[in-house]
Amino acid sequence: MNKTILQVPIRQDLKISAEKEALSQGFSSLQEAVRLFLNKLAKGAFDISFEKSVQLSPKAIKRYDKMIDEIEKGKIRTKTFTDVSTLMEHLHSEN
Predict the structure, then answer these.
(1) Which residue range forms the structural domain that includes residue 84?
(2) Which residues, at least 6 apart from 38, have a Cβ–Cβ distance to it below 8 Å?
């Protein structure tokens, strides 16, 4: 396997912070995290998220679970649309 070294100038504090975060996410090193990113980038697989996921509060989870249950039981009326124009027509109507 041919290998090459990639040098990327960055601030030292950024490297230290990124290294700590990589280790906390289960990577063995910052280099491993960078290699994973580069492999995915090279394959066009942009499924890497740099954003932290949103965690709902227990109260919100309970609220949404109740709403889903009510929808499934028919207690909350829903409407389905087969195309965008029908949806937009409904949204712009007085109903």
Answers:
(1) 58-92
(2) 6
Task: Select the more confidently predicted residue: 22 or 50.
Answer: 22
Judge whether 27 lies within some domain.
Answer: yes
Sign of CA dihedral 18, 20, 26, 28: positive
Q: What is the pLDDT of residues 31-41, one digit of tens each?
A: 999 999 898 88
As a whole-number percent, the residues of the chain with pLDDT over 70 amount to 94
| Cβ atoms of residues 19 and 29 within 8 Å | yes
> CA-CA distance, 11 to 50, in Å (whole number)?
19
